[in-house]
Specification:
The protein has a single domain, classed as 2-Layer Sandwich (Alpha-Beta Plaits), CATH 3.30.70. With about 130 residues, the chain is an alpha+beta fold. The protein has a 4-stranded antiparallel sheet. The protein has 6 helices and 4 strands, in the order αβαββαααβα. The radius of gyration is 17 Å and the shape is globular. The longest helix is centred in the N-terminal third of the chain and has 18 residues.
């Protein structure tokens, strides 16, 4: 029994949960997803990268025609809060794509999970 416990302890150490992944599911207005995707790729994503956000993946959801997802990774819940507060209060966002992006969104929900590096890399999609 002791050796089985060691196996579990070793596995737990290797799979240390040290990332916080935010999954944002955006319900878009009907027939707006193509325009939303274009705005996201051309304006919002470059801005997020400039602000040092780790965008793990994004794109149209496969389950319907009006949903889009964005997955971002943070090192802590505090980092997530600080980065989002600063970004969404910034002139870059407010004077940039904010109004055009928000006009296409009905509503959204965020889910935050604590995951390990393997999970983050499994979710990561190679973006252009």
């Amino acid at each position: 029994m002791g050796s089985l416990k060691n196996v579990f302890d070793d596995s737990a150490k290797r799979l240390k949960m040290n990332h916080f992944v935010e999954i944002r599911s955006l319900n878009l207005k009907p027939d707006s997803r193509e325009e939303f995707h274009r705005l996201y790729i051309e304006e919002a994503l470059p801005l997020l990268k400039r602000w040092k956000f780790d965008v793990v993946a994004h794109g149209p959801s496969l389950h319907d025609e009006n949903t889009y997802y964005v997955i971002r990774c943070f090192e802590s819940l505090a980092q997530r809060e600080q980065m989002e507060d600063a970004y969404y209060a910034s002139d870059d966002w407010r004077d940039g794509p904010r109004e055009r992006i928000l006009a296409l969104i009905e509503n959204y929900v965020d889910i935050v999970l604590e995951v390990d590096e393997v999970a983050v890399q499994g979710l990561r999609v190679q973006q252009p």
